[in-house]
Amino acid sequence: MKSFLIIIWIIAAMLMLISTRSAAQDKNPVFETDDCIICHIQIEMMPADFHQNDIHLQEGLSCAGCHGGDPSTDDPELAMDRERGFVGVPSRQETPEFCGKCHSSIEVMRKFRPRIATDQVEQYFTSIHGQKLKQGDKKVAECVACHTAHSIMSANDGRASTHPLNVPGTCKTCHSDPEYMKEYDIPTDQFENFTVSVHGTALLDNKDTGSPACNDCHGNHGATPPGLESVSHICGTCHANNLNYFSSSPMEKAFREMEIHACEQCHGYHEVIPTSDEMISVGEKSVCTTCHSEGDVGYTAAVEIHKDLTDFVQKYNEAEKKLQEIKKKGMDDVDILFALQEANQTLIHTRTLVHTFDPLQVEEKAEEGKEKAIEAINLARQEIEDFYIRRYGFGFATIFITIFVVALYFKVRSLD
Amino acid sequence: MKTGSKIFQWLDERFELTPVIEFMSKKKVPLHNHTIWYYMGGVTLFLFIVQVATGILLLLYYRPGSDSAYESIRFILTKVNFGWLIRSIHSWSANLMIFFAFIHMFSTFFTRAYQKPRELTWVTGFILLVLGMAFGFSGYLLPWNELAFFATKVGTDIVGVIPFVGSFLLELLRGGEDVTGATLTRFYGIHVAVLPAIFTVLVALHLLFVQRQGMSVPENLKDLPEEKMREMPFFPHFFLRDALLWMVVLNVLLFLAVFYPWDLGFKADTFAPAPAGIKPEWYFMFMFQTLKYLPAHILVFEGEMIGVLAFTVAGIAWMLVPFWEVKSRKGMKKNVMMITGVAALTFIIVITIIGYLS
After folding, report:
1. Residue B331 has pLDDT above 60, yes or no
2. Lower Cβ count inside 10 Å, N or C end of chain A?
């Protein structure tokens, strides 16, 4: 009995040890060993934006890691002695180099993130922000303006100011403030336009991080407005096929000669609206009639392409309607679904081919898609037919069963 | 001598069939105002046979597993010849079987056919109903669709509140802490092997009891002199009437399967939040709804636990009716039992309706 109690005590003691150890592990040791943090917490002088999940703090880099000084003494004068390496708070102009001390050094950075880039500072000074900072502009964004000073987190962290979902909000802080941007003579409605665009709604409303934020077109550290030549290349990084078709079309030369932005001319830029087949038509929503008028080749092409597209879409919609009918009837929709998926793929391809501005190519693809849609419609008709055959089958079965029941009834009557 | 007679003689010589046939041919069914209720058990039996037949056919294509169950049912519905019909009949027949089992049970209760000497017929019948509901519960999960998945989650959660053994039973049923593919294979095993084995034995016993003891006669006719008692032979008179009714039920089943095919729904997504309006099968609704009405705590006990215990006690009491009913005071006996039956039936119907309306 005695030995049993001893074992219980030992187990209990071990469990307590384990639990105490876990609690200590959970807490960042910096809070107990770093005298800068201990004192600044005590005198309630912590930076306003301080966050204990700051990536530097998580990696064991405390105040002295950036600001210098001696974190091992609780004497403020010794701790913040310039001779002990204390550098204090850097000015805006000093900030890029201040962060670059580590972030531009592959030797330092590879200890933490072996694949991290170390050319941020270099890129930054190629950006408008960096160039203006060099010229003495104290309002332009430097590292802290976008990354914050004491709550820096990985761009993959949803809380980070640089997370794709938060980037538009981060840029908006300055770029949507007319008062702040007054002296720069650039518009301040980019964020407003972006929120109603296809990209903005996908990113901000649907949380689709595959959709571009500001930095995906303008660059990160080397942020600069894309020039005339590069707009189409920027759109083309994602919309590669559209760009390829456009580049090999006769329109490319015409656009270049007229100094028109390739994509922006029809689609806009920050306020890129959802596309529709009406854009390539001669109707009210047409973008073609901006330059083309009745009788010219472009006008005729727009009419033909629009007709091919709408014919195809009409068939596709008809097939989709049939699919809904099949689903409602509880019939087999698998093959119809596959045929429709193929038709849908072809529709996307046809719409992409619009950027060739070649009615023949569009017509060929549209015909291919129409055939797929017709296949889906025929399959659906077959299923609907089957649906009614089941009912006729039930009718025949009922007749046989009724005859049998009546016969049984007469047999029962005759027995009685 | 004809071949048929020769075979019969050969069998008779070895198994003494003549006395059995004689017994069967002398079997009579009483004729009175309540004769209609005698057919309910037969209809339930017929639907069970349909279940076995369609169940075996479904087994040919069904593949248990969280990655294959839904797909295999979809295959049955869309690609297998008459698969849609078999699956729909199986689902409809399951529900009708429980429905007719309830009617059979309450008609037995109200005509007081459970009294001596038919106590064990009643007990086996009640166990068959419980097993039928277990069939329904285990079969409901097999398509691995959204509704079934969450209904099973809620249903098995209820098992977890049983004191002492709840968490053990919960893990035993689920094959782990959550409803997963392991639960599906367990339910499959229970549905196609464990339950059918027990059910078949009990059905055989139940039928044996009925055949051995004959049909019960309502109390008011028991004292009639033998010459005034109207009867009809079981074979072929009653049997043919049974067959006639079975054919009508078969036609109804076909109608339901063709015009109201059983929905497959969407495949279960174990990570998705539970969709709104998750409801159990209709025959569990009265219990589910009652548990919802109970407060979180009754005294120091969990409300749900008290509810589950109360239903268990009520179920056992109902199963043992033939034993405790006899002990009631004479004169009051009929009224007390009638009130109990009407109260139970009204409770089940009203709460089920509320469950569907809320």
Report:
1. no
2. N
Neighbours of A87 (CB within 10 A): 15
Average pLDDT for A82-95: 90
A-to-B residue pairs, Cβ atoms closer than 8 angstroms: 50
Q: Which of A392, A408, A409 to mutate to test the interface with B (most CBs of B within 10 A)?
A: A408
Please indicate whether, in this complex, the C-beta atoms of A334 and B74 are within 8 angstroms of each other: yes
DSSP notation for A175-218: HT-HHHHGGG---S-HHHHHHHSHHHIIIIIS--TTS--HHHHH
Q: Name the residue facing A412 among B85, B241, B248 (closest C-beta).
A: B241
Please report, as a single letter, which amino acid is at residue A292.
H
Q: Decide if B316 contacts B189 (C-beta within 8 A).
A: no
Which chain A residues are closer than 8 Å to B246 by Cβ?
none
Residues in chain A: 416
Contact list, A405 vs chain B (CB under 8 Å): 244, 247-248, 251
Q: Cα–Cα distance between B331 and B328 in angstroms, integer?
A: 9
Contact call for residues A354 and A298 (beta carbons, < 8 A): no
Mutation pick from A335, A386, A388, A390 vs chain B, by most beta carbons of B within 10 Å, is A390
**CATH number for the domain whose boundaries are B24-357:** 1.20.810.10
Handedness of CA B73, B77, B83, B85 (dihedral sign): positive
- With beta carbons less than 8 A apart as the criterion, state whether B156 and B173 touch: yes
Is B241 an interface residue toward A (CB < 8 Å)? Answer: yes
Stated as kind and residue range, the H or E segment containing B297 is strand B297-298
Q: What is the DSSP letter of A17?
A: H
Question: A410 in contact with B at a CB cutoff of 8 Å?
Answer: no
Question: Do B261 and A330 make contact, defined as CB atoms within 8 angstroms?
Answer: yes
Instruction: Using alpha carbons, list the distances in angstroms from residue A62 to A30, A72, A145, B272, B311.
Output: 7, 12, 20, 41, 63
Max CA distance (Å), chain A: 122
Residue in B251, B259, B266 to test binding to A, most A beta-carbons within 10 Å: B251
DSSP state of B236: I
Q: Could you identify the residue written with the tokens 């072929």?
A: B236
Question: What are the distances in angstroms from CA A242 to CA A247, A261, A279, A349, B175?
Answer: 9, 14, 15, 10, 53
How confident is the model over A148-188, as pLDDT tens digits?
Answer: 999 999 999 999 999 999 999 999 999 999 999 999 989 99
Q: Which of B28, B76, B247, B263 is the best substitution to test chain A (most A C-beta atoms within 10 A)?
A: B247
Burial class of residue B100 (count of CB atoms within 10 Å of its CB; 0-12, 13-18, 19+)? buried
Q: Are B247 and A332 an interchain contact pair (Cβ–Cβ within 8 Å)?
A: no
Say if A412 is an interface residue toward chain B (CB within 8 Å): yes
CB A300 within 8 A of CB A351: no
Which residues of chain B does A416 touch, with a Cβ-Cβ cutoff of 8 Å?
232, 237
ipTM rounded to 2 decimals? 0.83
DSSP state of A407: H
Q: Which two tokens stand for residue B117?
A: 């000497």
List pLDDT tens digits, range A35-73.
Answer: 999 999 888 889 988 998 899 998 888 899 899 999 988
Q: Between residues 76 and 115 of chain B, which touch chain A (CB distance below 8 Å)?
A: 77-79, 84-85
Q: Which is nearest to B40 in space by CA: B231, B284, B203, B246?
A: B246
Helix/strand/coil for B63 = coil
B250 part of contact set with chain A, CB < 8 Å: yes
Name the pLDDT band for B11 (thresholds 50, 70, 90): very high
> Per DSSP, which regions of B23-127 are E strands?
28-30
Asked if A412 and B244 come within 8 Å (Cβ–Cβ), the reply is: yes
